[in-house]
Amino acid sequence: MSQSTFHQTTHNHYTESGEHIVSKDAKVASIGTWLKKGWIDMANAPVESVFYGLVMTLSVMLVYFAYSNEPLMMFKIATFFVILSPFLAIGLYAVSYQLSKGQRPNLIKSMFAWKRNPTEFALFALALGIIIAIWSRIVPLIAAVVKSNSLLIVDPSAGVAGVLGSEVGQTFMIYFFFTASIVAAFVFMISVVTIPLLLRDTKIGVISAMVLSFQVTMENKKVMAVWALTIAALISVGILTIGLAMVIVMPLLGYASWHAFNDLIEVDDNVKELPL
């Protein structure tokens, strides 16, 4: 059921426990506001922002140098980062939450924000783990379909360039990115609201949160599509710079995602909020 107001349309949702949650429609222009608020949070929490940004930068660099001669593995793990990014941003959501409450950012507390709802976070991590396991089986299948055994003759020292410079490699990349986009889109739809909602509302279960996330995405198809493409573009910049840009990209997207959630979801005021 939905109701229209002068400013925006709202939708009523009820969880299995009877909790009332209201979702609100957003505009494409809101994305700029989310990013602006994320930038402000970065300025107000510089230490925390640099910490989480550096963690992601070092992770990307480690993968790049560890698999520089195994480009297919590099592409596969890069997708893992995209799938896990909502879960990796928990600490950043917690920092934004602290700032929204007028609290001083606390890095240690943000690192353990998952303790606020440990069982549900663990279940969501399990869900993402299953998706990653399935994806790790799909990549070799794609390689087989495009007869990428031919890639074995590519000079390993050429790395990614060796793949992109071969006809078979280019065909593989087309299939890879097409399939990866479908997987990433699905993960986005079930997670865009889930993690921040589990932080905000300790009464909701992970299944209800994922269902609500999917429903909110469907209610805001155009906005969510543009937002997903924005996230993908910024993460791509971070990866293509061998992780250097992640120092800014990771905290910016984490904080902006929290503000997106607050624009899209309104939890019943009767829900007790615990400090982070």
UniProtKB/TrEMBL annotation:
Keywords for this protein: Membrane, Transmembrane, Transmembrane helix
Taxonomy of the source species: Bacteria, Pseudomonadati, Pseudomonadota, Gammaproteobacteria, Thiotrichales
Pfam families according to UniProt: DUF2189 (PF09955)
Transmembrane segments: 50-67, 73-100, 121-146, 172-199, 225-253
Statement: the UniProt record of this protein carries the keyword Mitochondrion: no
Name of protein: DUF2189 domain-containing protein
InterPro entries the record matches: DUF2189
This protein's record includes keyword Disulfide bond: no
